UniProtKB/TrEMBL annotation:
The lineage of its organism: Bacteria, Pseudomonadati, Pseudomonadota, Betaproteobacteria, Burkholderiales. It comes from the Bacteria. InterPro entries: PilE-like, Pilin-like. This is Type IV pilus assembly protein PilE. One of its GO terms (biological process) is type IV pilus assembly. Pfam families: ComP_DUS (PF16732).
Length: 127
């Protein structure tokens, strides 16, 4: 009985720590992908004098031709906003945790990055 109690106490301590670790890991993965998208946007801008409005469409169709990793798409909703009518042109990419997933309880919330490299989140220190 004592052994069962010790195992239960250890599990009660380890499970939240492991869940937090998984959230940080998923967050790091989406942040890396978002930085790749913004870097690809900069290349697209140099080649075409405008930002792309699609991550997944082929370059011939005005997109970046990138594939969103399934591990990112499963827990985050990516939204890209471009404005090629203003000077300087702007692009912003946001990643919001999907509700109903383990990532939904992440305190960092929605992550945002812009063409200028400005990064923000619902909580400070998440980037």
């Amino acid at each position: 009985m004592i052994a069962v109690a010790i195992v239960a106490i250890l599990a009660a301590i380890a499970l939240p720590a492991y869940s937090s670790y998984l959230q940080r890991s998923r967050r790091a993965e989406v942040q890396s992908f978002m930085q790749d998208v913004i870097a690809r946007q900069q290349h697209y801008l140099v080649d075409r004098r405008a930002y792309s409005d699609s991550i997944t469409n082929a370059p011939a169709a005005g997109g970046l031709g990138m594939t969103v990793p399934s591990s990112v798409a499963a827990v985050y909703t990516l939204t890209m906003t471009t404005d090629n009518t203003v000077k300087p042109m702007t692009v912003s990419l946001s990643a919001a945790p999907k509700s109903g997933t383990a990532q939904a309880s992440d305190s960092c919330g929605t992550l945002v990055i812009t063409q200028a490299g400005d990064k923000s989140a619902d909580k400070a220190g998440c980037w």
